[in-house]
# Entry
Amino acid sequence: MKMNEYDAIIAGGGPAGSTAGYLLSRAGRKTVIIDKRIFPRKKLCAGLITYKTIRLIERVFGETPDSLKQRGIINFGSDKFEVFYRQKSLALNHSVYPFYFIDRYLYDDFLLKKAEEAGADVITGEKVVSCDTSLCEVTTSSGKRLKGKFIIGADGINSVVRRHFPKERFNENLWTEELGIAREMLIERGAVKFDVTHPMIFFGFINYGYAWIFPNREKLVIGICGVRRKMKKEIAGSFNEFLSAIGLHELKNKRLEGYTLPMGNFIRHPVCGNVALVGDAAGFADPIFGEGIFYAQRSAELASEAIDIFLRNKKRFDDLYSEMLQKHIMTELVSAKRHRSFFYNPLSCYYLGAFFRNFGKESAETIHGIRSHMGLKKQRDLNF
Ligand SMILES: Cc1cc2nc3c(=O)[nH]c(=O)nc-3n(C[C@H](O)[C@H](O)[C@H](O)COP(=O)(O)OP(=O)(O)OC[C@H]3O[C@@H](n4cnc5c(N)ncnc54)[C@H](O)[C@@H]3O)c2cc1C
# Structure
C-alpha cells in the first residue's frame, strides 16, 4: 500500500470516528482519522449516557463505569429522573440502571487516544475539505490527498463527506425538516436555589422539544432543544422563559450560540459505494431526546464490522452496512419518531403526568435500551 493509501479514511475524531478508528486498527486495517480540531477539544453536549452506551463501551473498549470514574470521565451518576410540565413536577422515577454524566472534553480525547494506541494514524488541526465518493479520495485543508478502500464520514452534523453524496442519495430538504436546534450553558451548582441530584426534564417551554437540568459533580448543565421547523417562537425566547422559571433571571439574554443536532432526520441508507456516514453525520440520534453518543458509537461499530466482512468475504459493503443499520438501529429510530408527538403535543400536560407515574420504570428502560420503543416491549436482545 502506498504512503497515502489506507484501508479506511475516517473524517472526524468524535465518538463515532474514534470508535471506528479503534475497531478497524485493532482488526489490523490501515486507518487514518482526520479531525479539524486539536484535541482535547470542547464539544457542546449535556453528556448523559445510558446503559446501552455503557454496554457498548465495555464490549468495545473493555472500560467500565468505575474505570471511567477513576479517569474523571464520568463525573456523576443518578438512578433517578424527574419529569416536569413547566415548573410542576409530574413524576420522580427510579431507574434500575444509573444515568451517567460524562465530560466530553475528556471522553473524546480518551477515545481518540485509544484509536491511536490501537494503530490508527491521527491527523488533527486539519479539515477534510472535499471527498470524491467514486474515487474514494479525500482532500484536506493543507492539500493532502488521501486514498482509501473506504471512507467513513464521522464529521458531525455539518458533515463535509455528506455534502459530497450525490443528490439522489441525500435529500437536503428532508434533512433540514427534522433538524434540531439547541442552546446550552454550564453553571455553578450554587446558582440555583434547589439541590440537583438527578436529571430533570422539562416539557412545555418549547414546542416539539424539552429543556433540561443535568447534574455534574461541580456544575449543572442547563439547556433546551427542539425541532426547528416546529418551533412557535425563537429558541432564545423559550430558553429565557425557562431560565426565569428556574430562578435564573440574571442569565436571560446571555448571548449563546445555537447548535444543531439530529432529531429525527436520520438517513435510511447513508452509504454511497464504499463511503459511509456514521453518527451525527447520518442524523443518528434519538428523535425524542436527541441522545446521540450511543448511536454515533453503535453506527461506527456496525460500519467497521461491515468493512471487515467486506475485506474478508467481498460481500457488497453498501448492502451490508444498510442491512446492519436496519436491524440494529433503524427500527428503534423510526419507532421513537412515531411516538415523539405523544411527548411533544401541546396537550401533553393533560396526560404526561399519568404516563410517567404509571410507566416511569418502563420509560427509563426504553431509554437505556432494555425495552423497545415499539410498544415498550421488553426484549432479551434489543440488538444493541
Ligand atoms: C446541546 C447538545 C446537547 C447534547 N446532549 C447529549 C447528551 O446528553 N447525550 C447524548 O448522547 N448526546 C447528546 N448530544 C448529541 C451528541 O453530542 C452527538 O450526537 C455526538 O457528539 C455525535 O458524535 P459524532 O462523533 O457523530 O460527532 P461529533 O461529536 O460532532 O464529532 C465530529 C468530529 O468531526 C470533526 N469535524 C467536523 N467537520 C470536519 C471536517 N470537515 N474535517 C475534519 N474533521 C471534522 C469535529 O471537529 C468533531 O471532532 C447533544 C448535542 C447537543 C448539540
Observations:
- The radius of gyration is 20 Å.
